Amino acid sequence: MYKIEIQEIAEVSSSNSGYFQQTKFWCEFKENHGWSYRKFRISWIHIEADSKGNTQANGSKEVSVLIRTFAKGFFSLAYVPLFPSLPIDGVNSHDQNIEFTNLMGEIGVALKPFLPKNTICIRFDPAVGFDNTEDRDIFVRGTKLVAFADRLKLKKSAVDIQPPDSTQIDLTPAEDEILSKMKSKWRYNVNLSARKGVEIIRVTGENEKLSEYLDIFYDLYKITAERDGIGLHAKSYYEDLLRKSAAEIAAGKDVPVISLYLAKHENDFLGAIITLFSKTESIYLYGCSGNVKRNLMPNFLLQWTAMKDAKAYGSQYYDMYGMPPADDENHPMHGLYLFKTGFGGNNIHRIGSFDIPLKFVYRFYDIAERVRAFWHKVILKKIRGR
């Protein structure tokens, strides 16, 4: 259905807009932590125009492809974040399921010669989202059906790389209007935290006390990881992220602003978050909290302070970046859903990751991912819940 042209780009322009996972800044950061990346100009022409000659499904985009090598170079995985999107603007999502599925599959086939020979699969995280889970799930089923009917080597991944479900707070209105969209209890908690004397400290990578503040952040994160059963990177990962942003900004580069926010009351640090601000979006990347003075509601003031700063920076929305898909009391992270949605954002439900297998060994990798996901999401959570 499509003619695909791919051109590798040697000189990658720096851009502080669009999805942060596609920026040069983020790709270079990931390159410091086990990944490599390549940049391509991907163009597509829909060769099955309708009776009126409509070819609006044509397009062209610069796309970053991240590559991770495993088992001492035995195999690699290619990962394409937040691409492709729906090919036709202004047309109902479900009416272009066939076009989208074929576009993704055919781009994958065209990308294969440009990737390392030991690449076992190409994993796409498409920029396709819905405002409810029902429409999302229908679209995912449709994509699977089209892939089967058209014999495309495309399957739903066992693991989603980017959080498929999130909520985004619109930062374009005045602050009072943003507050008015929050649940009343959330506004109360923001004011309570400030009234009780909780102080919010913002730290960026050039701060002379960065290492000291990162130690505090990491101690809080270890508490959260143990309490909630989540994974965390080495402390150097977060430090590198903060320092890289500050150094490039100091050098005059247009890159996202990475900040560490800490909530302090008297001599106690109660919680912390790390955020990313770009011209398009602001992202709540990482967050943690301690076990003392939780009644002071520090996390509410942390988030509101970051939102105000993101608005002042010029971001269009603040993305809470990951939550359960629905208001389900039986979900182990139901509290996280309530916390994030209470800020009055618009929920978004993306379709998650899709794989194009390239090697037979992918089957074993897929099984290993499923076993690992089951262990972490089911077994360990039951053990910790006892």
Feature tags:
eight-stranded mixed sheet; alpha+beta; 386 residues; seven-stranded mixed sheet
Fold and architecture overview:
The protein has 386 residues and is of the alpha+beta class. It is built from ten helices and 15 strands. The strands form two sheets. It has an eight-stranded mixed β-sheet with strand order 6-14-8-13-12-11-10-9. Strands 1-2-3-4-5-15-7 form a seven-stranded mixed β-sheet. The longest helix is centred in the C-terminal third of the chain and has 24 residues, at 362-385.
Strand and helix layout:
Blueprint: E1 2-9, H1 24-31, E2 35-46, E3 59-70, E4 75-81, H2 97-111, E5 119-125, E6 129-130, H3 133-149, E7 155-156, E8 165-170, H4 175-180, H5 184-195, E9 199-203, H6 210-228, H7 235-250, E10 257-265, E11 268-277, E12 281-289, H8 298-313, E13 317-319, H9 334-341, E14 346-350, E15 354-357, H10 362-385
Parallel strand pairs: 4-5, 12-13
Antiparallel strand pairs: 1-2, 2-3, 3-4, 5-15, 6-14, 7-15, 8-13, 8-14, 9-10, 10-11, 11-12
